[in-house]
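Student: Please help interpret what follows.
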Amino acid sequence: MSPPRFDLIDRPWILVQRHDGTTAEVSMLELFTESGSIARLTGDVPTQELAVLRLLLAVLHCSIDGPENDLEWRRLWRDDRLPIDDLADYLDHWRHRFDLLHPETPFYQVGDLEPAGSGRTSLAGFIADLPVGNPYFRMREADSTDRIGFAEAARWLVHCQTFDPAGIKSGAKADPRVKGGKGYPIGPGYCGRYGGVYARGDDLRETLLLNLIAFDVPYARFDEDDLPLWERPPQTPTIEQRPGVDGEWPSGRPLGPLDLYTWQSRRVRLHFDKQSVTGALVCQGDKLPGANLHLIEPFTAWRRSRPQEKRLKQPLVYLPKAHDPRRNLWRGLASMLPGTAGRSATGGDALTPGVMEWVGHLTERGMIPADRTVEARALGGHYISNESVIEDLVDDGLTMAAAVFDHDRPDLAAAVRDAVADAEAAVRALTALAADLARAAGGSDGVDSARAKAADAAYGELDGRFRTWLALLKADTDIEAARRAWQQDVRARMLRTGAELAEQAGPVAWVGRESNGYFLAAPLAERNFRTKLRKALPLASPRSEPPTDSSAEEPSSD
């Protein structure tokens, strides 16, 4: 009897959402063929979306060996469908490398992987929504992981290579790094430290093309030796390494985006019977250098690290900028926009994700209309306990006109950046009010808590308002009028929230008390708050409102 097979090209395994809101599993070839009728990728957890997208982009790039330049990309964009004949021919040629259960070259796995010791094959450490040691992150019952279907296992396999937490793994036999039967930490999966960002279009076909960067751009350097995993010799448990200041990583790699899109952060071997997968041996794989991948990795923003420059003795060191699940996505939007953190600013403190540079390039060259909307999607994991536990996932998006990414419209990007700064300055004024009210009501106890609660309430109040304001910003928008309208909206909402805080402070705060040589009372705190708000939002203050005597302000530690 022939062994079981699960061909990822023709067997349904990728989760998608159609335009009517229904979800379905589709094969890889079906996805490319029907991409225009599919709204978006989805997954068992949000981060599966980014992991699978990168895999699909590698297939699409390789199937057309491009696009080489703007002209080739424009042809793809103008066609009604993706180049299905090229895709089908390419996938058929490499079909033997896309079999999840192949006895020698199983997809994204090592066929002869064996544990150095007893080994662990539990699915609990393989499936991200049931991580070991963190039962509060569960999205299923523990006894439901005795076995899973081949389709679900394929999705978790791609996700494991991309977002698997760090920590000690089973040691792989023949891996020289193994000590005492254990594989010691090399960090999370290759996107675990990224603040993953990509551009989403009106359907999956548009999404794939908006992230299909041409080979001739300077911020995603494709090389002739840059190949995806299935075009390379199959990986073995033995890992060729070179030493470096930042640890050890595979010699000479990564070679480019295609190498990174299909990076094998883990050596994995699925265990299965004829019906389903019953376990997974997960061992350490290829360690990814932590610094200066900004010229070949386009799906994250970058931050300059001067401490690492001193440590590594290099003039410029850029590290990926991870998402902070405690901050609204729009508060960090400036780092995504070419007009405020573009790649032309060599030596700058931040670099825009390459895919956002690409969207700006497409707009600048007129290949997509300036006023068509593009969603900047943000996906990522937040890790704790030395990156060994996924504490939270970031899943957010901001819809805006493509013109906001245009390199030739830095005024629009600056308006967005300044609008975020307006909001943050206004929130600082509000948190200072909350702190003063807490002191006036009863001393320093609870001041930090009062600030934090006020900030949470304020950003929650402004979140939807900013998203609406951003979505209405167009190429022909009167920027000064838009900024004034935004400041007026922020002012009105902060004044209302401030009044609520003062009312909640109670009669003790209205009577007031002495603190550090100053008299504190709710009326004085409110007056100081209005002064700070006027300075924070100069375009919003009514011109008839008399100035406040700033000498009466209570010094605050905020």
In short: The chain has two domains: 14-405, 410-552. The longest helix spans residues 410-442. The longest strand covers residues 389-401.
